[in-house]
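pinging the channel bc i need a second pair of eyes. not urgent but kinda urgent?? the chain im working w is below, pasted from the shared doc
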Amino acid sequence: MSTVDFSEFQRLDLRIGKVLKAERIPDKKKIYKLQIDIGEEEIQTIAGGADYYPPEYFVGRTVIVLVNLQPKTVAGIQSRGMLLAADLQGKPIWLTVEGEAPPGTKVR
């Protein structure tokens, strides 16, 4: 396993986000378009798991989001962040927090 310097880790802007909306994408069976409150703004992301979870699963959920990931267009939709998840044999297990942490709270 390779290692990263602490200064490299500090470049990642990880925040608490709250999913406001989850929508199916026409002709896509494995991804959703999500609208996420990250405190000072709302961002749109693409997230996998549509083959395991209904869209209602995401709405209202508190998630961990990498917010300074370079934007990428997926299925014609610009994704401006990435939800963190464990990978259990291909099934995403979304990372969240226990207790109350408002959207935008930094994760360190």
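so The chain has two helices and nine strands. and The chain has a mean pLDDT of 95. — does that match what u expected or am i reading it wrong
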